[in-house]
Design a protein that fits this description.
Distance between the termini: 53 Å
Radius of gyration: 25 Å
Protein name: SWI/SNF-related matrix-associated actin-dependent regulator of chromatin subfamily A member 3-like 1
Keywords: ATP-binding, Helicase, Hydrolase, Metal-binding, Nucleotide-binding, Zinc, Zinc-finger
CATH architecture of one domain: 3-Layer(aba) Sandwich
GO molecular function: ATP binding; ATP-dependent activity, acting on DNA; helicase activity; hydrolase activity; zinc ion binding
InterPro entries: Helicase_ATP-bd, Helicase_C-like, P-loop_NTPase, SNF2-like_sf, SNF2/RAD54-like_C, SNF2_N, SNF2_RAD54_helicase_TF, Znf_RING
Structural class: alpha/beta
Strand order of the largest sheet: 6-7-5-8-9-4-10
CATH class of one domain: Alpha Beta
CATH superfamily of one domain: Tandem AAA-ATPase domain
Strand content: 5-15%
Family: Belongs to the SNF2/RAD54 helicase family. RAD16 subfamily.
CATH topology of one domain: Rossmann fold
């Protein structure tokens, strides 16, 4: 299907036209939802659950748009929004649509787009580049925002974030909750993989007939990541947790049982569109994007670095042995994470860690009294949260907001853990220890100075920084105009890299999570400029430059440290390797030999197999707890 010319000015690629046709068909089709059939006597039956009804089940208007990252999903979605606007102008309504009478519903053609704040700029840029000026009126519902429904309904597109919806979920006067939206699009929808998180509940509760889930990585850890997506799509019976468990999850976890997998595949086949950049066998590319090669550069630590590293690893292993059984390991989860974090930082640069080894250890956390009376421990755990850009609250799976540390030394967002305390369980979700309000401590806020003046430039460069400089110099020699992106999870590491790179003559920019959305888009714009004296190296945190950011002006990606989750790394690479890229893309992973980093690559490989092979089958149905402990032991080199 062609894009509506009065709204979209760009030519769609063939695969985008095919996707647009599929999206429009799904929205306007009056077919029975998947797995429902009409029987002889005019009733309807669900072939999976044998449920019967005389009333025709409503069609499922929406689905999962899961094309690989970098294939231009945003432009395809803008074309879809443009189609319904164009049809509305002609006064034509989609067939067979019954509308609930909600204020503003009749004339509303407003699409609500929900995405992480880092993706706002991508939607705005795509609107500017691909649509006629003023053809799609857009409102950013974030920060300072209207409380008037009428105001929002004047626009074709309202863009908001998952966290904004989460904040407003329990507020009385939220216009977003009251409106019957024409369409809701969840961009980067894997954000809602935790069904217990408040923002997930807020998204599921939105009113709309047309519902789209958009993500290049629908499964990141296990097939259970798909359940919240089904709940949002209201795809019955899979939107009901007990049915999802009995029809998909349990059969998948039983060994040698193809039923769960077959069901999962037919379910995804019925409601999702997924194309990857390479067709099967990697022979032919679906769009003409130049090749991507991924290489690993292995680095030896210096004698001094190795000494620090080995000492830290030994301390960690001893601690883990001390904890003994898996329940005890989980109770002391944050202590183990602390070691893992420090080992990862030592691979990057000793300067990321305080040098008195004893001061690194967060205490065993075995005695409640000690913890609550130990402000030093709280400070250390706060620094742990600050150091790890990738530290997430285990309840909402987002970086903690108003960080709370429990007396059992686990870290959560204040709202998440308070909600648990109000519920009947009132136990720590990780170690199941009883908690009350007195067991919660607010972590001291860590201020982010924009520049870190305390970095000593005279100190010797770490082995990994030296390796990066060598690679960057070689690339600049081959092509002085080529641009590179260096990804690291540690904000402090990005700051540490600035000095040596500037001293080596590189024109650099930094993009990290502490910047406002406005500042981020300024940095991306500056990096996009071409010509003499323009920046050639972007130092970026994965969180800030992960989702929805377009960096095709660069052709080399350096992953300074590996990430737990292969999906997140793929996202980082695909900021550069996507439509619009004209050069071959080279991705270089910097990995320290004989270290936790090699073990992280192994863990990534396991997760990849889990996702592609059995579409999320767990090994022999092991419990989550067991797998998590096994991963912790593996990271410390004990498995």
């Amino acid at each position: 299907m062609e894009a509506p010319g009065d709204v979209v000015v760009s030519q769609l690629f063939d695969h985008q036209k095919a996707a647009l046709g599929w999206l429009v068909h799904r929205e306007e089709s009056c077919d029975l939802p998947p797995f429902w059939e009409e029987d002889e006597d005019g009733g309807f039956q669900n072939v999976l659950t044998n449920q019967k009804t005389d009333e025709r089940p409503p069609p499922l208007k929406g689905g999962i748009f899961a094309d690989d990252m970098g294939l231009g999903k945003t432009l395809t979605l803008l074309s879809l929004i443009g189609m319904s606007k164009a049809r509305n102008v002609g006064g034509k309504k989609a067939r067979g649509v019954k509308r609930r009478k909600v204020e503003g519903a009749e004339e509303s053609r407003t699409t609500l787009v929900v995405c992480p704040p880092s993706v706002f700029s991508s939607w705005v840029t795509q609107l500017e580049e691909h649509t006629k000026v003023g053809s799609l009126k857009t409102y950013l519902y974030h920060g300072e925002r209207t409380k008037e429904k009428k105001e929002l309904l004047k626009h074709d597109i309202v863009i908001t974030s998952y966290s904004t919806l989460g904040q407003e979920f329990e507020q009385e006067n939220s216009p977003v909750k009251d409106i019957e939206w024409f369409r809701v699009i969840l961009d980067e929808a894997h954000v809602i993989k935790n069904s217990a998180a408040r923002q997930t509940k807020a998204v599921i509760a939105l009113n709309a007939e047309r519902r789209w889930v958009v993500t290049g990585t629908p499964i990141q850890n296990s097939s259970f990541d798909l359940y919240p997506l089904m709940a949002f799509l209201r795809f019955q019976p899979f939107s009901i947790k007990s049915y999802w468990q009995s029809l998909i999850q349990l059969p998948l976890e039983r060994k040698n049982n193809g039923t769960g997998l077959a069901r999962l595949q037919s379910l995804l086949g019925a409601i999702s569109l997924r194309r990857t950049k390479e067709t099967e066998g990697g022979s032919k590319s679906m769009v003409s994007i130049p090749r991507k090669t991924v290489l690993a550069c292995y680095i030896d630590l210096s004698a001094e670095e190795r000494e620090y590293y080995d000492q830290m690893e030994l301390e960690g292993k001893n601690k883990l042995r001390e904890f003994g059984d898996k329940d005890s390991i989980l109770r002391n989860y944050s202590t183990v994470l602390y070691f893992i974090l420090r080992l990862r930082q030592l691979c990057n640069d000793v300067a990321l860690c305080p040098l008195d080894i004893k001061s690194w250890l967060p205490g065993s956390g075995s005695s409640l009294e000690d913890v609550s009376k130990n402000p030093e421990l709280l400070k250390k755990l706060a620094s742990l949260v600050d150091d790890g850009d990738d530290f997430e609250c285990p309840i909402c799976l987002s970086p903690p907001v108003k960080t709370i540390i429990t007396s059992c030394t686990h870290i959560y967002c204040q709202t998440c853990i308070m909600k648990i305390l109000k519920s009947s369980s009132s136990r720590c979700p990780i170690c199941r220890r009883s908690l009350c309000k007195e067991d919660l401590f607010i972590a001291p806020e860590v201020k982010h100075p924009d520049e870190d003046s305390s970095v000593n430039l005279d100190r010797p460069l770490s082995s990994k920084v030296q390796a990066l400089l060598k690679l960057l110099r070689r690339a600049a020699k081959e092509d002085p105009s080529s641009k590179s992106v260096v990804f690291s999870q540690f904000r402090k590491m990005l700051i540490l890299l600035e000095g040596p790179l500037k001293a080596a003559g590189f024109n650099i920019l930094r993009l990290d999570g502490s910047m406002s959305a406005k500042k981020r888009s300024e940095v991306i714009q500056k990096f996009g400029r071409i010509g003499p004296d323009t920046p050639t190296v972007l130092l970026a945190s994965l969180k800030a430059a992960g989702a929805g950011v377009n960096l095709t002006v660069a052709s080399t990606v350096y992953l300074f440290d590996p990430w737990w989750n292969p999906g997140v790394e793929e996202q980082a690479m695909d900021r550069v390797h996507r439509i619009g890229q004209t050069k071959e893309v080279k991705v270089v992973r910097l990995i320290v030999k004989d270290s936790i980093e090699e073990r992280m690559l192994e863990l990534q490989e396991r997760k990849r197999e889990l996702i592609s092979g059995a579409f999320g089958r767990k090994k022999g149905g092991k419990e989550y707890k067991e797998i998590r402990v096994e991963e912790l032991q593996m990271m410390m080199g004990m498995k």
